[in-house]
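Reagents: none. Just compute today. Histidine--tRNA ligase.
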Amino acid sequence: MPDIIQDDARIFEEVETLARSLFRLFEFREIRTPVVESTEVFTRSIGEGTDIVEKEMYTFLDRGGKNISLRPEGTASVMRAYIEHGWANTGDITKLFYIGSMFRGERPQKGRLREFHQIGAEIIGGKGPYLDAEIISVFEALLKKFGVTDYKILINSLGCAADRDNYKNILKEFLLKNKLELCEDCARRVDTNVLRVLDCKRETCRDIVKNAPSILASLCEICLKDFNTLKTLLSRAGSPFKEEPRIVRGLDYYTGVIFEVIHPGLGSQDALGAGGRYDNLSEQMSGPKTGATGFALGIERLLLILNRDNMPKNNQGVLVAGLDESSVEEAFILTQKLRGMGITADMEYSSRSLKGALRKANREGRNSVVLIGENELKAGKFLLKNMKTSTQELVTFEELAGKL
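Predicted 3D structure written out:
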């Protein structure tokens, strides 16, 4: 769980700012849910047989003896809030987004941390291929906003309940023939949660499921029609998508259309984010039956592929420096005046030398420095130095404000 500092903190801030502006364009509203929830929120939604619940959640007893957990993902908490606040009673489609920390006890590696950050979006209260296309279009728009290219969208459909039950029997029959070659977890899941085998990351299991029957062959007429409509919409939008019948997602609440967004810059673990439909989640959490779809994008994963040079740069502002004891008070007052005018400014507190002030300005990447010494005090002016061009000029306060 590393600190986020300096340039990384700046990039995080810019990513969050850009994301919020884009969500406003799509008319999504922000929601902020608690970091700590009742463990039941996640066991009932994510699924007790998933790796997240079995191996990765941070769960403990509070002082009252209640099981609580750090949230491992955002969708379950959003749905809990949707139910508790009675938003289903409006009959409207609810569009929400969140940005925040999630926690999983994974083995830390590049781009995968025990505390990580996600940008997520949910559309609750409707279903159908047009909303599936909408949620994918939001994900794509985010990537374009961040200047990300070369991504690919992998899509699949888990169909309706009858489709999944039919496919589970077909898949189980196939896997039983190869059960001895499966890892210990997958051998157990053949009998307890067979779709999870498709999500295993072990090479031996991946090699086996490559030859497994496709779930798309088990789709009913309605689910197949919806899936084909989605493909048509994505094609017309120019989205770079590909059918991938092996993706199932690592969370039990998914139904219908699911997708992953991958990027070659992330290596073998190339998932940038993912999402899909979860039409049964509200009922699983004792809410009303309602359609829903959403996605989550990992910010740490995103930072691995961002071209930081293309990200907006924070204005470092002007540095104001008093070059002797008699000038410090004037430097302090000037700094306050500039801030009062909406100009980003800081004061050099630790040095009284020209060299020290310029060295600090260079180190911090500032464009301008205002220097005040004995001569400037007598003239009632300020020395404005441009750090990019190395030019300088004496200016009045009115001129200074105009040039900054």
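The longest strand covers residues 94-103.
Action item: order primers for follow-up constructs.
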